[in-house]
Amino acid sequence: xxxxxxxFCGPRAENEFHxxxxxxxxxxxxxxxxxxATWSAYLHMRRNPKGPAREVWMHLTCGEIFxxxxxxxxxxxxxxxxFGEGSAS
Amino acid sequence: xxxxxxxxxxxxxxxxxxRGWQPAWRxxxxxxxxxxxxxxxxxxxxxxxxxxxxxxxxxDVAVIEKGWLGGGNTGRNTTVVRSNxxxxxxxALYEMxxxxxxxxxxxxxxxxxxxxxxxxxxAHSPAEMELAARTVNAMQINGIDAELLSLDRVKSMIPAYDxxxxxxxxxxxxxxxxxxxxxxxxxxxxxxxxxxxxxGVDLIQNCEVxxxxxxxxxxxxxxxxxxxxRADRVGIAVAGHSSVLAEKxxxxxxxxxxxxxxxxxxxxxxxLDCVVLAPALGTYVSQSDKGDLVxxxxxxxxxxxxxxxxxxxxxxxxxxxVGMFPSFRQLKLMRQWAGIVDVVPDSSPILGxxxxxxxxxxxxxxxxxxxxxxxxxxxxxxxxxxxxxxxxSRPFDLDRFARGRLIDEAAGSGIAH
Amino acid sequence: xxxxxxxxxxxxxxxxxxxxxxxxxxxTGFAGDTVATALLASGVSIVGRSFKYHRARGVWGLGSxxxxxxxxxxxxxxxxxxxATLEDAAxxxxxxxxxxxxxxEHDRGRFIDLFHRFxxxxxxYKTFMLPTWHLYEPGVRAMAGFGRVDPAIGxxxxxxxxxxxxxxxxxxxxxxxxxxxxxxxxxxxxxxLCDEGNEFGGxxxxxxxxxxxxxGEAAVEAALGRMADLGVTLLTRTTAFGVYDHGLVALSQRGxxxxxxxxxxxxxxxxxxxxxxERPLPFANNDxxxxxxxxxxxxxxxxxxxxxxxxxxxxxxxxxxxxxASAFVAVGLDVVLVDARDRVTAAKGVRTLAGRRIVAxxxxxxxTEVVLDDGARLPADAxxxxxxxxxxLQLYAQARGKPxxxxxxxxxxxxxxxxxxxxxxxxxxxxxxxxVLASTRDALLKLGIAPARRPEIGPPLxxxxxxxxxxxxxxxxxxxxxxxxxxxxAKDVEVAAREAYxxxxxxxxxxxxxxxxxQGRTSNLPALALMAAITGRSIPATGTTTYRPPFAxxxxxxxxxxxxxxxxxxxxxxxxxxxxxxxGAQFREYGGWLRPAWYxxxxxxxxxxxxxxxxxxxxxxxxxxxLGKIEVIGPQAAExxxxxxxxxxxxxxxxxxxxxxxxxxxxVVLDDGVLVRxxxxxFVVSCSSSHVAAIRGxxxxxRQDRFDxxxxxxxxxxxxxxxxxxxxxxxxxxxxxxxxxxxxxxxALPHMAxxxxxxxxxxxxxxxxxxxxDRSYEITLPVDRAPALWARLVEAGRPLDAVxxxxxxxxxxxxxxxxxxxxxxxxxxxxxxxxxxxxxLAKKPGEFIGKRSLLSDEARRPDRKQFVGLEVTDxxxxxxxxxxxxxxxxxxxxxxxxxxxxxxxxxLGRPIALGLIERGGARHGETIxxxxxxxxxxxxxxxxxxxxxxxxxxxxxx
Lengths: 89, 417, 958
Hints:
heterotrimer, A: mainly beta, four-stranded antiparallel beta sheet, two-stranded antiparallel ribbon, 1 helix, 6 strands, globular, C: alpha+beta, six-stranded mixed beta sheet, 22 helices, about 30% strand
């Protein structure tokens, strides 16, 4: 059972969390002017790194989304931080 | 010297001290250049090399494998083969593979122990029966063997299942693909390896690709831990490591790599004849010819390359198994392992030229690559030999994501979206 | 009869005799015996048959490394494929050998061994291909497998799961583990100590030693007593089987009274005192019963008073086996010690042959003689072998520790330390007791624990370890067994090498060595050494296999724990469940909730028709409580909902409701529902019951990612509120009769609006929305008031002949109206335009989730599957749900889509159906072929709404 540090609640069991994709995958704005390739890159393409990863996760229990840095090979957790006001870390 | 495998060869070698058996493959030094390089010595890569030589007459081929042949997902799966898919494009793909599996032992002169005792997917509610009917009809329209089973038929197939009133997930019926079943995974890898080697393909183990050789905007080869190897075309079939290689080639894939755990119990006398999946639980199980129960379930939903899962998923899968078959509580977990599965948003593979010209992709099989090995090999071989798609692989090109034309098999099978 | 019990020796309790049967024969023993020791004491030589060749096998070892003594146990305990060396003997058990018929002694399968030459490793890859494997497979399957699962036994014993945290978890209760645990406890740490055997003490129970003047056994007992006083958790019969991520260690505890327990432990530090396992020696026929581990035989003598035979040969390549030789001499048995080392200090009274090795054992069903390398023959009814010791490092390796080859001890030892883990004692390569305890002391010092004093250890090892290489070599004569359980010989390894299966993993998979239930404990290293010799590499260069949990087989029931039946994924229950049951509801699971499917004793079809008919005639009561109610609050709420929904929602006025879709970013319809606007800054998102968690996730994600978290809040109030629906032409009359405090006038409360009201003082919201197509009211109020309100509504409905309706009837009513059910009438690719909702795409100016995806070529293809109604044209029964529309193009049949909902409409008196059909929207009136399980019918494409398309019944008020 892995433990992830929710910035709001502290370390919690892995099954309380939901993976939300790469950190920094910014939604392209511009409606029809956004190309198919750009939109598809946002929707589908992933870094999927082997090793250190910077990811977005949601702690389902409290609903907070936050950034988690961890290693996808060793499963070491390197750190986490919230995005907005009022997050603990 | 015994090259051919048969009962007669066993008899002969048995009487003469087993001294005449030949290496299943050579271990050559890599040459500086080949016509085609295939990266990845698992089932798909080895099958590709085999069909390049066999079907297209291209024998100047090297398979580059960073570890030992078949050591990735090919050696770690639960050996299920089936073609019970929903969309016509998928049906064509997986049925091509199953048909090739049906003749593979003879073709490769290697017993892959194809055992077609049926793939049974259960329906646990009237709503699930409706989805089961939808799937059976789709399969039948696509020319694939499928039956919608009543509860009584299911009972006769899996008598050890819990059909009692207190069962958590009662059975209403199910979908049966009679030609589905299992095959010995190592044998598939070794059979293709031996077959490819005999046709002149070089199998290079313990050789890792560190980068691609790019000249004039084209992929011209690979840079490996054992030197630079040039090639006219390069194919990659590395499953969970596809994104790693893609990054080296300068593009991204719609792939996330996850851990998929699989388990085996101690061997017991025959108790289960077919492969069974309980979709509500996510757990599926079959009994190998050695008597062990081989089973698995859902992914560890945390992106990972560790080939190592954790207890929560293992407990869920096992709780599901003993929920299906309460008498299996008498058994023990003997071994557990995991693979790295390359999951793609529409649960369909990616076949075709990559954004780097000269580099061709075979990936995105997710949890379902083993059953497709022969087709993956035929189709990647076609791409590498001709530079063009076979009609069966065209719908699976990487460009389907930009076009928005996904082949969403999870949706097709009614998995909640 | 070879082994037998000696009088007066051992730790068994001779005042408590017991008896059980083995393969139907009576076996006696005493309390404290394992099944294996009781068998040995009773002279049972053959305890099983090997997997492939059905060769006779006897007890080999002491614990989980045992490869041969696998048995099925029935009686007060039910264990399949039990390791007899770890199972307590108990009165009345029926123990059976596995893989033997009728019994191990006279197994019919033993003739197979005659054909072993034609069945080398991997032979099945080379034959059984013609005509197909299917011809041979049934026979192979019937012969495979060890024990037998009894399908009639569902619950062989209870299983339990426990979470624990502690300062120190010590795995292994030998001298290193016991004294580490004691020192830590004395230093005030919380400690858990576990051992796989049924007693603590390890080698101190069978090797002569004194600690502070006390004999080893007594020192252990004293330590255990002190630890119990200090609150140490002492777990025998408990195997630590897995080291998982982030410091979790899993233990499997075998219950004595039928309750197995899984422990999930998070220790601050883990001490591995897991000892070392003795290796066999390679010689021809080294698998004969009577040949066993010298260490095990010594333990059998000292702990259980068992002599292995009367003419004993002890063969060794190291000094540790000398104590066994001396011990058997001391009880008056005939012993010859064959030591491979040239310079050997012979123990007193032990006839020693130095510089010699056994090359073959002779015997038919048990060993009778051994042949040495110089040709000498020694009669022997017991051969005790020691090929050296391999530290047990699986847990260290699971934690990603890298074992390192040690040329002096000819074994893999722990390499670089892993954070949070110490390896001590024999597991770290220390075999002398003083060294063992010193290594423990050093490890504890690093943790800041200084043991009180250094104990006095005596005596030193009888003979120093000084091991020499006795690994199997290529070209050995005869059948030299490497893996006893899977019948793999040295020759099989040589053939594998010849055939290029030289990597460790290929070797294992090709020969199956190391893949039996003993997980290669006694075979992995000899095989590796042999392959190294064959390929001219060093042992470490040849590689090791990866170690993964479980260290030893763990009962499946332990992983499942109490998760079975109603405790597995329990469905959510309605607050009104008892009321529904009292009204005769038949329950089914829908979207994770247990809900009434219909009411009454009639068959389903009749009940559903009755309810649906009555619902349109008078009034229906329906419990819609699982419906999602997610509140969206704040100054940014309206803007936010414009982004979340496909439809424009900011123009919704307070007091009104609007139906809309929430899409995924791929454009696919994720959920539909009615949005209620409470006031300027407050809305309630009502989503389908099975999508509440997903929608809440979507709302939270975008709230935090795109909007101002300080000006926008999301609150899931689904479980706090009940929603009771009253529908039908008499619905308004029913509510009036119920006397609720709410203005029901249609001008105050038109369709798609809501009114505030009160029920017995509690605030409630009455919303006019309809899922039936008739006038309909949804009453939302706190759950604890729901039973009273339901009772009031039932009461008010009685004179009006109102009926409660279940989900099945509701689904028919909405199907008559063509109302889509997301997940049933949509297929994970369905876009809002496919459902006929095109206006927002054309007209809504701002961004919303999924918008860009709706602009793709794919989204605009004319041949997309669209939501339609389907009418039966042949006068037959309803279409089968899941049937496909089909057409034949160029001789090839293809699917046009499928029937997603189908029912007999009591309102219309005919079948109705809904489906997704290619270009369906432009094909109303066309007839198509519909195929179900090979049979073809015809159906006409129509608008989804089959009843009251003008919607007049929404306001109809009888």
